Amino acid sequence: MTHNGGGMIARRDLTVRIAARTDLSPTCFRFILETAEEIAAVPGQFGMVTCGAGFDPLLRRALSIAGVARREGVTRVELMVKEVGRGTNLLRHATVGSTLRLLAPLGNGFTLAPVEGTCLGLVAGGIGLPPVLFAAERLAARNVAFDLYVGAASGGELLDVERCRAAAIAVGGDLVLTTDDGSAGEHGFVTAALQRRLDGGQRYGRLLACGPNPMLAALTRLARERALAAELSLEEPMACGVGVCLGCVVELEDGRYVASCKEGPVFSVDRLAARWWP
Ligand SMILES: Cc1cc2nc3c(=O)[nH]c(=O)nc-3n(C[C@H](O)[C@H](O)[C@H](O)COP(=O)(O)OP(=O)(O)OC[C@H]3O[C@@H](n4cnc5c(N)ncnc54)[C@H](O)[C@@H]3O)c2cc1C
Ligand code: FES
Predict the structure, then answer these.
(1) Is 79 helix (H, G, I), strand (E, B) or coil?
(2) How far apart are CA 110 and CA 217, in angstroms?
(3) Which SS3 state, helix, strand or coil, does residue 97 take?
(4) From CA 214, how far away is CA 110, in angstroms rounded?
(5) CA 69 to mean position of chain CA atoms
(6) pTM above 0.70, yes or no
(7) Where are the domains of the chain?
(8) Which of 107, 164, 236, 250 has the fewest CB neighbours in a 10 Å radius?
(9) Protein fold of 119-233
């Protein structure tokens, strides 16, 4: 079962100031959003963000929370964004110092509890990194051991490598980098690197993952074949983020359809219907 960090955390619609934006790769950037309000979020939760002033585009965009910290009366929320279309393009060009609306925290989170006798396996593909890095840093702060697998299309698209390394090293874990084109790290998919280590005898008490759907399907197959516990953060296209529009429904193994913005976005692989592991 996934959890939401020990109880309900009220979501709020806040005005946030863009305090900083930095490029992470040719396609991805980091946003630091500031507010005087307190925000408590756990890894896996997300926010719905306006893409600019006014009503065009009308819909907010769903973005995972990559980190949240409060110091001297200011809450800083970190987002990592890949520019893929109109909304994320507007965000990339939003003026630092201007304000956005952020509805957060939404959804549930990964299960971060340690598993007796094993460590956790964290797996991120591409822009699936933000919730996984947030989990890695929270686990490192609690001294819960994990290995971190991070894959990207090419070396230039591997995001925040030094932070990933620092989090893994803090608990004596490995950082395994992979690229599809072999330009950095191990050549091939991140799930293949995981499989090689499982074949070599490495054991994980629970896998936590976020990434593109083909990666999540491969990971689900791997987890089911080997009876491994695994939780996936799904990124179904979302319009409202609060369970109203039913645009984000996910089919479960018991035949139910649930709103992934409310029951997810984190799901155990054993709850998901077969389309997730064809
Ligand atoms: C819970 C959740 C967390 C997310 N976290 C992040 C994050 O941390 N960082 C980040 O960059 N993105 C994240 N996404 C995806 C992000 O919401 C979309 O990339 C964004 O809405 C696209 O908006 P756009 O207007 O730029 O593109 P659009 O013009 O709406 O779409 C451009 C292209 O992207 C595809 N697309 C749109 N939405 C999604 C989606 N949800 N998943 C996959 N492809 C999509 C479209 O099919 C189209 O091909 C998350 C999505 C969800 C549901
Ligand atoms: S996005 Fe509207 S119900 Fe989930």
Answers:
(1) strand
(2) 18
(3) coil
(4) 20
(5) 17
(6) yes
(7) 12-106, 119-233
(8) 236
(9) Rossmann fold (3.40.50)
Helix residue spans in the chain (DSSP H): 86-92, 129-141, 161-170, 190-199, 213-225, 260-263
Closest by CA to 2, choosing from 234, 253, 245, is 234
Q: Is residue 241 within 8 Å of 60, Cβ to Cβ? A: yes
Give the ligand whose atoms come closest to the C-alpha of residue 234. Answer: 1
What's the distance, CA 221 to chain centroid? Answer: 20
Per-residue pLDDT of the chain (278 residues; tens, 9 = 90+): 344 444 455 889 999 999 999 999 999 999 999 999 999 999 999 999 998 766 555 689 999 999 999 999 999 999 999 999 999 999 999 999 999 999 999 999 999 999 999 999 999 999 999 999 999 999 999 999 999 999 999 999 999 999 999 999 999 999 999 999 999 999 999 999 999 999 999 999 999 999 999 999 999 999 999 999 999 999 999 999 999 999 999 999 999 999 999 999 999 999 999 877 66
> CB of 232 closer than 6 A to ligand 1?
no
What does the chain come to in residues? 278
Closest CA to 110 of 270, 265, 243: 265
CB of 240 closer than 6 angstroms to any ligand 1 atom: no
Task: Please state whether the peptide bond connecting residue 265 to the residue before it is cis, i.e. omega within 30 degrees of 0.
Answer: yes
Superfamily of domain 12-106: Translation factors (2.40.30.10)
- Pocket perturbation via mutation, ligand 2, pick of 61, 238, 263, 267 by most ligand atoms within 8 A of CB: 238
CA–centroid distance for 165 within its chain = 17
